[in-house]
């Protein structure tokens, strides 16, 4: 019997907007202060330099291949293939996060799947594994965080899609369906929904004083004074912030 793939509960757009431009590094640092010590998805790296995305996670879990349970070829029994069915649920702004077990021999998605995902409004994929058809995939308007590339299709060698929109362990980090992903050139970070509102406020404040700090350090300011902001530098920062608000 074919299992239904549940949709995810997407966070309010205000939370997504609040994390835009904050950056993975700031999110990771602030999450550690909120009690999540390591939200960084280890393994996948940025294959689209300069791309930064924020969005909810559609999740896909692969398991080791066992031919008696899953012997289908690339195009056989299409609706059984969960890597296709999770994409059917794509809404604008979604990100697909895949636990592919760090496998370097199977291409989770190829050009056609990724083209479909983009056409539905998807913005990026984070895969603890590989994609294929990269010469074509790199021309799509998507962000890629991957371990690597392969010419093989998804079930050709060692792994098979096993579950979709369930909790997964991607790069040794727990990802719940609908968690917010923040990904840029530093990598991909998982933002738990329950912490997203508090994180948004703290990360925005952090990013703002870092802008001031970056300016002062570039002007030759003392590291011990400006990073992190010392008590003596805080009034200077407040005056700068008020001046910036007045300009706006």
Description:
There is one protein chain. With 248 residues, the protein is an alpha/beta fold. The chain has two domains: 13-193, 3-Layer(bba) Sandwich (Glucose Oxidase, domain 1); 198-247, no CATH class. 31% of the residues lie in helices and 22% in strands. The protein has eight helices and 13 strands. The chain has helices spanning 13-19, 24-33, 82-88, 111-119, 134-137, 196-218, 223-226, 234-247, and strands at residues 40-41, 45-46, 53-64, 95-99, 124-127, 130-131, 143-146, 148-149, 159-164, 168-170, 173-175, 180-184, 187-191. The strands form three sheets. Strands 1, 2, 3, 4, 5, 7, 9, 12 and 13 form a nine-stranded mixed sheet that branches. It has a two-stranded parallel sheet with strand order 6-8. A hairpin with a 2-residue loop joins strand 10 (168-170) and strand 11. Helix 2 (24-33) packs across helix 6. The chain is elongated, with a radius of gyration of 20 Å. The mean pLDDT is 91.
